[in-house]
Specification:
554 residues; Alkaline Phosphatase, subunit A; Arylsulfatase, C-terminal domain; Immunoglobulin-like; 3 domains; 8-stranded mixed sheet; 4-stranded antiparallel sheet; 21 strands; 19% strand
Length: 554
């Protein structure tokens, strides 16, 4: 049976590759639509949980390839988003701590403030934008280079200010409809409706789901406050489903449904306690499906997918060879690679509290390695305590009303290693690390984990404040050098001098500095002179302050 399923999946992906690559002409390329939402585990009917009524997602699922084993490397938004954007593991590029700045939306115009934080080594930590290695780019830049119109609505929050090279539009109104006629597009529509904060923001709204009918995991006590928050989460999923319906209807009405590859996924696991921020499946496993044009390749697969694989896969489906530096692997398209045997997870500073945990998972087992064994699995983060049931759990713990399974999250000290059979124990509450018969599996996976951490050069080994000083000498953000412009035969040649930097430009009638950051072009070739216009140029690099804007009369 398994062999038959693998053959079907292989056929699907090969067929997809042939169909997608039917032409290299810009107007024949397929579009990409990302429908994403925040903070949900696979709490959906096509994953076996019909608590929430989601007709639009169900309809999409019927014509999609559903992935049963899709995992983010970090169970919280900013590090996860940095991984999706770059195809790199957060611990490899320094985006692993949550959070480094306040770039929730837009282009990252912000002040970097002293937040009074020190790392465990005593180094000062301020808000900062991560300086990633010079070769690392937001993958949409490579799509723009081959003619795609790239938009994002509306969250970025990637641990670094979004570079102007990443999108044509990046705002609450960004939309693929603003592209040129016939131009292929890549568009992200992200919803905050299911975000953790909506558990308390929508607390006084009517519920769509009956609290008495929700199923509770073994690690939650059964009481009205807990049931209400769980029902609120499912209710928010129903609201999000209506948003999905509008996006799909708009795509269809514009005649684009069968010209577009649709990705749906959440940024990480669910918003409730022991979900978001956890390194178990409850925090790292996410719903994930792809609808190919005309619903050609529907079905499901148990293939292991890491969010690091998303960037190279999109490029592969667009016919663009993923750059060698990317650590993710393309699981479909022209440049499809071998399947993952393992996926990896990490957990470091979350808001004001430091921790360090690493994990490795295959289709059968999850191995967790705890570095701070005196730190409980539960981190006493102020933001999370806004959830009513979190406050209730803390009260019940104090009154000693929680059972052994429910107390597991709070216990301290914790073992260096945890091992779980993910098929027999999907909630990961039965630690097998002290069982003699599992020592061989533990040792094998621990060796694989250590090898991976060495290969990606785990930046979690460096105290955050020390790492920050390496990126920002004297805690001052580096600045890209001012670009140079030269006129040659009626065309402007522009050069940038900071390693890892790229150029953007805009032609306008305005001769003063432009504040608007949408609709800047990516510099790929000399710019032709346009009379009575002004050429505006900036040099940008991820983590750096943009260069001074150069303006010349054309």
């Amino acid at each position: 049976m398994k062999k038959t399923i693998l053959i079907v999946i292989l056929f699907v992906l090969i067929s997809c590759t042939k169909e997608i690559q039917k032409s290299d002409k810009k107007e024949d390329r397929y579009n990409f639509l990302f429908i994403t939402n925040e903070d949900i585990s696979p709490y959906l009917s096509f994953y076996g949980d019909s608590t929430a009524y989601t007709p639009n997602l169900d309809k999409l699922a019927k014509s999609s390839l559903i992935f049963d084993n899709a995992f983010t490397p970090v169970g919280v938004c900013s590090p996860s988003r940095s991984c999706i954007a770059t195809g790199m593991f957060p611990i490899s590029i320094g985006t692993h701590n949550m959070r480094t700045g306040q770039d929730y939306t837009g282009w990252g115009n912000r002040k970097y403030e002293d937040i009074g934080l020190s790392d465990p080594a005593g180094n000062k930590v301020i808000q900062y934008s991560v300086v990633v290695p010079p070769e690392v780019k937001v993958f949409t830049q490579f799509l723009r280079e081959v003619g795609y119109y790239c938009t994002n609505r509306f969250k970025t929050d990637m641990q670094f200010a979004t570079p102007m090279t990443a999108f044509d539009e990046n705002s609450p109104t960004a939309h693929y409809k603003n592209r040129e006629s016939g131009q292929p597009f890549f568009s992200i529509f992200n919803s905050m409706t299911t975000h953790e904060s909506k558990i308390w923001v929508y607390a006084n709204d009517s519920l769509r789901v009956d609290p008495k009918k929700v199923k509770l995991p073994a690690y939650f006590p059964d009481n009205p406050i807990v049931r209400t928050d769980v029902a609120r989460n499912y209710s928010n999923i129903e609201i999000f489903d209506a948003e999905v319906g509008k996006l799909l209807k708009e795509l269809e009405e514009n005649g684009l449904l069968d010209k577009t590859i649709i990705f749906y996924f959440s940024d990480h696991g669910g918003p409730l306690p022991r979900g978001k921020r956890a390194i178990y499946d409850s925090g790292l496993k996410a719903p994930f499906m792809i609808r190919f044009p005309k619903g050609m390749h529907k079905g499901r697969t148990d293939q292991l997918i890491s969010f690091a694989d998303i960037a190279p896969t999109v490029l592969s489906l667009a016919g663009v060879k993923p750059p060698e530096y990317m650590q993710g692997v393309a699981f479909a398209g022209k440049y499809k690679e071998k399947e993952n045997k393992y996926v990896y997870g990490s957990r470091d500073r979350f808001d004001e509290i430091y921790d360090k945990v690493r994990s490795i998972r295959n289709k059968d087992y999850l191995l967790v390695k705890n570095y701070y064994t005196e730190t409980p699995r539960y981190l006493d983060i102020e933001y999370r305590k806004k959830i009513p049931m979190m406050r209730e759990l803390l009260k019940l713990r104090k009154k000693k009303y929680l059972n052994k399974t429910q107390l597991m999250w709070f216990e301290s000290p914790i073992p260096e290693y945890e091992l779980y059979d993910v098929n027999k124990d999907p909630e990961q509450v039965y630690n097998l690390s002290d069982k003699k018969e599992y020592q061989g599996i533990m040792k094998e996976m621990a060796v694989k984990l250590d090898s991976f951490l060495k290969a990606v050069d785990d930046k979690g080994n460096i105290p955050e404040g020390e790492f920050l000083k390496q990126m920002w000498p004297n805690l001052k953000q580096p600045i890209t050098q001012t670009p140079k412009i030269k006129l040659l035969s009626n065309r402007y040649i522009i050069k940038t001098f900071t390693p890892g930097s790229d150029l953007v430009y805009k032609i306008d009638t305005v001769k003063t500095k432009l504040e608007e950051r949408d609709h800047w072009k990516l510099y790929k070739e000399p710019v032709t002179v346009q009379k009575d216009k002004y050429l505006h140029v900036r040099s940008v690099r991820i983590g750096y302050t943009d260069s001074e804007e150069v303006i010349i009369e054309m």
